[in-house]
Amino acid sequence: MANLSSDPGAAEDATAPAFVAGADPASASILAPAAALPRQLGLATAAAVIVAEVIGVGIFLTTAGMVKALGSPAWILAVWLVMGIAAIGGALCCGALAARMPREGGIYVYLKEAYGRRVAFLYGWLSMLVTDPGITAAVAVGLATHLAYLVPMTAWARRGAAVAAILALAGVNIAGVRFGSGVVKALAAIKIGVLGFLIVWGFGSLRGDWSHFAPLVERRPGSGPLAAALIGGMIKAFFSVSGWWDVSKIAGEVRDPRRTLPRAMVLGVGAVTVVYILVSAVFLYLVDPRAIDGDAMFATQAGEVLFGRAGGVVLSLIVVVAVLGSLAALLMAMPRVYHALAADGLFFRPIAEIHPRFGTPARATLIQATLASLLAVVVGDFDLILGYFVVPTVLFLGMAVASVFVFRRRDGAGAFPVPWYPLSPVLFLVPTAAVLALLAMGNPRHTGIGLGVVLLGIPAYELLFAGRGGKGKPAEVDAAA
């Protein structure tokens, strides 16, 4: 990959406006720390963040569940393709939003400009205190669990390994944007290389059986109702390809963001979709769907076909690399939201300060790392905790993508071009709305608790932050940003 530090336009881009034109002077002064973050990231890094974060353990577990439920190779690959196309529709919208508002924070910025500061604060409140630390801790614990397959550990040793991974990668990202992005790019490249080898060797070794794809469409005996299986498969695939929007959180540090961010999103999501389809296909080629023992065993069975008794070890190594890349990308992107919150006066001002030597949002990164480390030690069931907040999280995502309608109505279609509009937002919002409805109806109690916690942010906003850094209504977007 190219050396990002050699770009002569980096210094010039570093002075690009990082605040909303037309905001009052108090708001501009509060945003000064955000403007100090230099634009030194290019297309390779932006695409690598997507690949590194999105391709995690789900690529090895989701296909197995889909095989058992759908019972047909054609349906499985079709679900991956459909959800990949939906994600590309969302990426086209987020790319247009990021090009229009290339400031750190991503979804937070779009919510603030489209719906106001209160809604943006609620998103930041949820992200900073619950979902981001929870996801980070869950990924780190998953990393330690697969590491324990290679090096036997006690339960407390696994928790210690999870905390060590969080703190080490937080330190990497604090030590400099170029250093942190270099680690993310390296892990993404290794991940793609290893999975590429797995795909090529899986088909090229001729150790599988093409009869596993026959019949291609007919479902295997014992499969449940197709409609229910498709719904379950789409939900699993939706979350397996999720996280691509996090690259918009580092938009304030990307060079030539109007060109780079849309290209990175489409390139990253496209690469992820292709990899998921090909890995699923090679697993189906290697393992008879009728012989699948369980979600976690599917990849191991495929590994044993390819590498013999060492297959489990090889696949565990691949999973460790995949999850390590996800963790590094999470710790790079997520703290930019808290930093942007504080810069906008929606969180405590010291969090907006950047490290004087490394030029990174060190305090924001430490918040995420500290909360995630605590959760990794004390929490037993991450699925239960995150299950309470999945509906609010997806709801905020849908609102962010739907903001393209708000901006085009407010600013005019010519001032806010969106590729494939209106097809692109529809491609993403229709399945997203379906996922939201199914999740809410499937567990209304969890949904109610999650939304209740989000709404607790309203009194916090009114008491602490309502009068800071703005008038509480959307500002005009700076078209020259």
From TrEMBL:
It comes from the Bacteria. The chain crosses the membrane at residues 41-62, 74-99, 120-149, 161-179, 186-206, 226-245, 266-286, 306-331, 362-379, 385-407, 419-441, 447-465. It holds the Pfam family AA_permease_2. InterPro entries: AA/rel_permease1 (IPR002293), AminoAcid_Transporter (IPR050598). One of its GO terms (cellular component) is membrane. Gene3D superfamilies: Amino acid/polyamine transporter I. It is found in: Membrane. Keywords: Membrane, Transmembrane, Transmembrane helix. GO terms for molecular function: L-amino acid transmembrane transporter activity. Coiled coil: none annotated. It is a multi-pass membrane protein. PANTHER family: AMINO ACID TRANSPORTER, SOBREMESA, ISOFORM B. This is Serine/threonine exchanger SteT. The lineage of its organism: Bacteria, Pseudomonadati, Planctomycetota, Planctomycetia, Isosphaerales.
